[in-house]
Design a protein that fits this description.
- The protein is an alpha+beta fold.
- It contains twelve helices and 23 strands.
- The strands form seven sheets. It has a seven-stranded mixed β-sheet with strand order 3-9-10-16-13-12-11. It has a five-stranded mixed β-sheet with strand order 20-19-21-22-23, sandwiched between helices. Strands 5-4-6 form a three-stranded antiparallel β-sheet, with no helix packed on it.
- A hairpin with a 5-residue loop joins strand 22 and strand 23.
- The longest helix is centred in the N-terminal third of the chain and has 20 residues.
- It is globular and about 75 Å long.
- The structure holds adenosine-5'-triphosphate.
- The site of adenosine-5'-triphosphate (ATP) has 16 residues, from strand 10, strand 13, strand 16 and helix 8.
């Protein structure tokens, strides 16, 4: 049943232009995915909602967009080339925990008993070459996490923006990891997007801010429609933590796939990590670059490495989470007026901020030129204000179903009355209630509905 749910979601994504397999005509490539016309709208909406929350709504968080390609010394300093990443690794095919081969007593996963991949000299960093000569000197890596670009710009941002601790730097961007076992659709891929905020604070305030940001981040998911019972925060035990983390909490969602981590129920999988990175990054970059990345605290007259609290979310994993949470199947169809003999109907109950299409415009029928003309006029009028779709193909019921299936928030229908009364019906996706609104008042009315 649960597996079935994933295949229905994957099929919807493909059929309706949310997500396609990458390089499909060549048989796919590296378990990558491309976001289609509706997918890119929805993903942009997720990133926009995160940016709003983490920069505009905050007083002391600024944004950054750093380069993907950085000096290879960055990865030496960050520990990505040394801290276990370049050893012989095996990965459990079930729970995805990775182990140094030489640390294992038996050839099975010590956490869940699952089958292991063959050992490989494995570094998750993706190597590439910069410039025309492919030799060691030109080698670097595609970034494995976006945050390093933030640490490198710590002083640039601090000085140019005249900031004082505590403050944050937020960034959204692509990251690359040569995952041994990608899978579960877009849950684990080799190219993905992160939405990260790094909060620089006094070391003695790190615990307080860790708890603060954990609460804020959970609220963000709940505020966008994730149910409380499907979300949890798990304290990660020391031996499981990332090499830089003094403390780590994983925010997990109950997915319809996946084996249990650290024991417990199946399905719970990480969507975001909250980390207390201590002074790991700034002190290591100081050491490796020879630059003094300490902060002078004017209040206490002390010089120190700020501690960093990181909130690290995945745009793709958030996408999958919101999609699964929104997916509803209604047996026998939604309409009560006709007999319930129809097959299952799908409604994507996405939060209106995330829905890829906010407004669909439909003429009641397409063989009446006056209706089509009016509907197209309305569509042209609304296009600059909302993401709109014009749809005239098929019966009106079918078109409503098509819009419900892609999560369109409001559907407008131009009928014969509209021609006389200069109005139309506005149908709400979730309640299916219809309301007549005058065309002259439409933009304001829709703004009101979509923004409140
Ligand atoms: P996992 O244990 O699942 O491999 P991680 O602990 O290595 O994840 P972090 O390094 O904490 O992940 O990265 C922060 C976030 O980036 C994750 O919570 C996730 O949302 C996203 N992320 C990490 N790796 C991937 C991936 N391969 N595909 C998609 N998203 C990812």
């Amino acid at each position: 049943m649960e597996k079935d749910l994933m295949s229905k979601i994957i099929s919807l994504c493909r059929r309706r232009g949310f997500i396609f397999p990458s390089s499909e005509i060549y048989g796919g490539f590296g378990s990558g995915y491309d976001f289609g016309p509706l997918g890119v709208e929805m993903k942009n909406n997720i990133k926009q909602a995160w940016w709003e929350e983490m920069t505009r709504k905050q007083e002391n968080i600024v944004g950054l967009d750093a380069a993907i390609l950085m000096s290879p010394q960055v990865w030496q300093a960050s520990g990505h080339l040394t801290a276990g990443f370049a050893d012989e690794l095996v990965e459990c095919k079930k729970c995805h925990h990775r182990f140094r081969k030489d640390f294992l007593k038996e050839n099975k996963c010590p956490d869940c008993g699952g089958e292991l991949t063959p050992p490989r000299k494995f570094n998750l960093m993706m190597k590439t070459f910069v410039g025309p000569v492919e030799d060691e000197a030109a080698g670097t890596y595609l970034r494995a996490e976006t945050c390093q670009g933030i640490y490198l710009n710590f002083l640039n941002v601090l000085n140019s923006m005249r900031l004082k601790i505590p403050f944050g730097i937020a960034q959204i961007g692509k990251a690359f990891r040569n995952e041994i076992t990608p899978g579960n659709f877009i849950y684990r891929t080799r190219e993905f997007e992160q939405m990260e905020m790094q909060w620089f604070c006094r070391p003695q305030e790190a615990d307080k801010f860790f708890d603060y940001w954990k609460t804020q981040r959970i609220k963000w998911y709940l505020g966008l429609g994730i149910k409380k019972e499907n979300l949890r925060a798990v304290e990660v035990p020391e031996k499981e933590r990332s090499h830089y983390a003094k403390r780590q909490i994983d925010i997990e969602y109950k997915f319809p796939f996946g084996s249990p981590r650290f024991g417990g129920e199946a399905g719970w999988q990480e969507i975001e990590g909250i980390h207390n990175r201590g002074d790991w990054d700034l002190s290591n970059h100081s050491k490796h670059s020879g630059q003094d990345l300490k902060y002078f605290d004017e209040e206490t007259k002390e010089k120190y490495f700020p501690y960093i609290i990181e909130t690290s979310a995945g745009a793709d994993r958030s996408f999958l989470t919101f999609l699964i949470a929104a997916f509803h199947e209604i047996k026998g169809g939604r309409t009560k007026t006709t007999k319930a003999v129809k097959e299952e109907e799908v409604v994507l109950r996405l939060d209106k901020r995330l829905a890829p299409i906010k407004v669909a415009v439909l003429p009641l029928v397409r063989n009446k030129p006056e209706l089509v003309k009016k509907a197209r006029e309305v569509y042209q009028m609304l296009k600059p204000y909302f993401t709109c779709q014009y749809d005239e193909l098929g019966s009106i019921g079918r078109r409503y179903r098509r819009q419900d299936e892609i999560g369109t928030t409001l559907t407008l229908t131009i009928d014969f009355e509209s021609l006389k009364q200069e109005d139309l019906t506005v149908r709400d996706r979730d309640t299916m209630l219809q309301e007549r609104v005058k065309i002259k008042d439409l933009i304001e009315a829709l703004k009101e509905k979509l923004e409140k």
